[in-house]
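Quick one: AMP-dependent synthetase/ligase domain-containing protein from Anopheles maculatus, structure tokens please.
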Amino acid sequence: PTTLEDPSTHLAVILCSSGTTGLSKGVSYSHSFCIANLPSLWLMAPTDCLLAFSSLYWLSGFASLIIGTIAQATRVITREPFTTQLAIDIMENHRVTIAFFSPYQSNLLVHEPQLATVNLPALRLLLCGGARVSKQLYASLRSCLPSHTLIQIGYGMSESCLISLTDGESYKDDCVGTLQARAAARIVDDQTGQRGLPPGEPGEILLRVMIPFSGYYGNEAATTDIMGSDGWIRTGDIGYFDMDGNLYVIDRKKDIIKYAGNQISPTELEAIIKQLPGVLECCVVGLPDEGTDLPAALIIRTPGMTGDAVTAEQVQQFVDEQVSNYKRLRGGVYFIGEMPLTPSGKIIRRKCVELVHKILKAEQQSHP
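--- reply ---
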């Protein structure tokens, strides 16, 4: 085989960034990055069977390939897109021991009645990451899955790889666990990016790994924008550490809705809306309006009579009763059949904003 003089500078692979806030960028990994950061993300054995619907050009899909190959484990590969029925069938028929699902996919699974009745004795670990895992989602997963199945929530990004992981046995709101051995993180003032913040005080999360990624392919400006010369990566996420070293992720900095001088967390509103019977999934976005943003909710109803009965007025009243006045859904409530998703199962908020504008335009045309 060819000997690489310097594996830290030799390009090994180019993956795609998540693309939730804009077009995906090419995330370049060197051989050294792959060797240092990928094999230890989670433990696998030759007896394991892994299922992940992620494409190979996303971190979760590529990590599954590398870890599964090194561990000499079995990977279930399908060209079919994710559906709850397909996921359940594969887990049952192939005795899957480790499964990776995004929170969106996990939410669809727990609303699938068959999951509560299917026998999954081999499933020892469910990995979930890419977005917030709410208390309700965790409780639903816990009630549907075998008691011996660990549920681990991970946090990271394509540019840093997986940074933290929960212990799989407990849950805390917004907690993504403790840092991996090869990673470092700090919380800084999200306005200046300079002042380090103490435990319990939210700010922007900065990450650094032992061997950094090689930058965005053909995009030096974007690389400089996200990573300093010291290797610290600006995640754009708002979070904090507790006194025990657990990391908490509150929201994306770019997703924060600014209304009348106040800051609103969309995930906070989404967690409330999902508690309403008949709501399967939702996404809260800010609609521009005369120098401010109005919180608006896009909702997928659950199939059946309960979902059909949910109205926009009911959702707004449900939220109004639980939040401060400035957090109310002044941008409205809109119902859709499916969410715009990345191939890795993340909701694309900018596409959701476009959907709301299309709905509003159609309403204006039908009622001139």
